[in-house]
UniProtKB/TrEMBL annotation:
Gene designation: lspA
Gene Ontology BP, a term: proteolysis
EC category name: hydrolase
Matches recorded under NCBIfam families: lspA (TIGR00077)
Native source organism of the sequence: Lactobacillus melliventris
Function: This protein specifically catalyzes the removal of signal peptides from prolipoproteins.
Protein name, UniProt field: Lipoprotein signal peptidase
One cellular component term from this protein's GO annotations in UniProt: plasma membrane
Length: 155
């Protein structure tokens, strides 16, 4: 079953890198094109920081954090402690997102962001960022609402 979650991670990496390749090859830096008017656009930006462009230029720190996070995700996916599709799906999404952004950081020294939500003022992000966010939410939902009940069922 762990193989399925590694496939999910790989799918996220391929989807993320594919869209980034498309954006970099077809957009000028800073160019915006509406995809769904007043809902979302693609805007090509380069982010050499972390989320919301904090700590710009700190590549060594981002490499270290990414490697540690990848090891932790692989540990939880391969050890299969929680026996939960919700938890494992969340970790798989986080893993794929971390790898997607790490590829950019190693190859380009920045992360390509492109998804802009037009109906609210929010930072521009990418598929990897979305996968990390959704994955963390799934893990928290599991830990907050399901982990304790499973422990009680075992007793």
């Amino acid at each position: 079953m762990q193989f399925l979650y590694l496939i999910i991670s790989l799918f996220i990496v391929l989807l993320d890198q594919g869209l980034k390749f498309f954006i970099a090859g077809n957009y000028q830096l800073g160019e915006t094109q509406q995809i769904i008017p007043h809902v979302f656009s693609f805007t090509y930006v380069q982010n050499d920081g972390a989320a919301w462009n904090i700590l710009p230029g700190q590549m060594g720190l981002f490499y270290l954090i990414s490697i540690i996070a990848i090891v932790i995700c692989l540990y939880y996916l391969l050890r299969n402690n929680f026996h939960s599709k919700l938890f494992d799906s969340g970790v798989a999404l986080v893993l794929g997102g971390i790898i997607g952004n790490l590829i950019d950081r190693i190859h380009l020294k920045y992360v390509i962001d492109m998804i802009q939500v037009d109906f609210i003022h929010f930072n521009i992000f990418n598929i990897a960022d979305s996968a990390i966010t959704i994955g963390i939410i799934l893990v928290f939902i599991y830990l907050l609402f399901f982990d304790e009940s499973e422990k009680n069922d075992v007793k």
